[in-house]
Amino acid sequence: MQLLGSRGSGRAHRGARRRRTLIEYTPEAARQVDALLQHYEERQRGSAARALAAALGAAERKIEHDPAGGLPAPRPYPQLAKPGRKWIKSGRYWIAYNTTSPPVIAGVFFETANIPGRLRPPEPS
Predict the structure, then answer these.
(1) DSSP per residue over 29-45, as a string?
(2) What is the pTM assigned to this prediction?
(3) SS3 of 26, please?
(4) Which is more confident, 52 or 116?
(5) Phi and psi of 116, rounded to 5°?
(6) Which of 55, 11, 58, 3 is nearest to 34 (CA)?
(7) Which of 9, 52, 61, 107 is the right S-S partner for 96, CB 3.0 to 4.6 Å?
(8) What are the angstrom distances between the C-alpha of 16 and each of 11, 34, 121, 125?
């Protein structure tokens, strides 16, 4: 299956029927959404896939409405705070986004995931 949208970064999650937003997804975030959807599809959990789509839609609207309104990090993981990144809780997911203009969703994690263990280490500079 393919992501909807264009410009190479993944504009929306697949199978979603909703209005287009200005929020883009990084390739990593798009892969995370795809992996979650595949997990749900393999287990025939349509309601979980719909809940993910609803959570992403709500997160996009919150970010569009108030990009500065997120948290510095998920409450269980304060060590994940970094400049230029905010986090919001939407449904059962933690959503990381870059506070660029426009904002870009950079990560999507199920609430009980080991988020620090799923983040890529920073690239050497």
Answers:
(1) HHHHHHHHHHHHHHTT-
(2) 0.77
(3) coil
(4) 52
(5) -60, -35
(6) 3
(7) 107
(8) 11, 12, 30, 37
37-69 tens-digit pLDDT: 999 999 999 999 999 999 999 999 999 999 999
The secondary structure of 61-123 as a DSSP string is: HHHHH-GGGSBSS-TT-GGG--TTEEEEEETTEEEEEE-SSS-EEEEEEETTS-HHHHSPPPP
Exposure b/e, 6-19, CB count within 10 A at least 16 = b? eeebbbbbbebeee
H or E stretch covering 24: strand 24-25
Task: Give me the residue label for tokens 């975030």.
Answer: 29
For 7-42, the pLDDT digits (tens) are: 334 444 444 434 456 799 999 999 999 999 999 999
pLDDT for res 22: 72
- Asked if residue 81 lies in contact with residue 42, where contact means CB atoms within 8 angstroms, the answer is no
Superfamily of 24-113 according to CATH: RelE-like (3.30.2310.20)
The whole-angstrom separation of Cα 34 and Cα 100 is 23
**Cβ(27)–Cβ(8) below 8 Å:** yes
